[in-house]
Amino acid sequence: METHRQVIEDAPEELTTILLSGHVPNLPPIPDDLAGKKAVVILGCYAGNPEEGEQVIAPLREIGEPLLDMSDMMPYEMLHDLGAQMYPWGRKYTHRSVFVDDLSDDIHGIIVERTEAAPTPMSAVGIWPLGGNIGHGGDYAYPWEDKQYMITIEGNWEEFQNEPTLDWAAETERKIREAGGEGAYAGFTGVEERDWESWAVQVYGDNYDRLAEIKAEYDPDNVFNQNVNMALSSYSIPTYRSVSEPATAFLQSIPSLHHLPVLRFLLSRQCLNIDPQEKLISK
């Protein structure tokens, strides 16, 4: 972990890595005798000149004696497919996240401790270096552009009992927050909100009030609700939009979607309830 931290601090933008503390997954490219062993895995991609990339990742390949080194030139589609194999359809998942400013010894200690405490060998804790290059400040929905790392708690299991993994993931997140972590990535909030947390506040941060006003104006009926939703009760709801207004006009009124005709089509056909006359009706 220490070598990974040192390499990433000086790494060029072309290099992206994820460090996972867990167990070797049982995937087709991996020998059966390695599956299930405790391990620290470094996944990554250098999107640039291959020769320069080999020099950049050399320190990571030289960490001890690896159980397996699959580093090689490959199409991006193959890299994506390897990731997809790690999370097959039908398995149970609860993924949580916390942002931190730096990888302190306390954070490293929590990652090691909580990996050992995981109730299933499929679970893991990951470190995603962000490089402070995500989002562009307060004008965007994403408020955590100044954070350097995202810590993910990946609860993955196939057992009948759900509570052990759900509780492990939530407790791991809580410990990281107590050590200075904050915020959350909208895609990794978990599947069960606990009494001590508010997903909307964690995800939207200081942008919450501004986004709630936008939500109240453009989506007063909460049509787009399959996300980290926010309450609208404290904001006035416009009365000029009726359920008979054409769906296309409604979508065109949203500036961020106006220039995406394909996305607009998908939304109007799949996310909204549309009648043959293109009228927006109740869900």
Q: How would you describe the overall organization of this protein?
A:
The protein has helices spanning 2-9, 50-61, 76-85, 105-117, 163-178, 199-204, 208-218, 247-252, 255-258, 261-271, and strands at 15-23, 38-46, 92-100, 124-129, 149-157. It is α+β, with helices and mostly antiparallel strands and 283 residues long. It has ten helices and five strands; from the N terminus they run αββααβαββαααααα. Mean pLDDT is 80; it is low at 234-283. α4 runs antiparallel to α5 (163-178). A five-stranded antiparallel sheet has the order 2-1-4-5-3, covered by helices on one side. 34% of the residues lie in helices and 15% in strands. The protein is globular and about 55 Å long.
Keywords:
10 helices, 15% strand, alpha+beta, 283 residues, 34% helix, five-stranded antiparallel β-sheet, disordered C terminus, globular
C-alpha Rg (nearest Å): 22 Å
Series of secondary-structure elements, N-terminal to C-terminal: HEEHHEHEEHHHHHH
The major β-sheet equals:
5 strands, antiparallel
Helix fraction bin: 25-40%
Shape: globular
* Total number of beta strands: 5
What proportion of the residues form beta strands (DSSP E)? 5-15%
Low-confidence stretches: 234-283
User: What topology, given as strand order, has the largest sheet?
Assistant: 2-1-4-5-3
First-last Cα distance: 49 Å
User: Which structural class is indicated by helix and strand composition?
Assistant: alpha+beta
Number of helices: 10
Mean pLDDT over the full residue set: 80
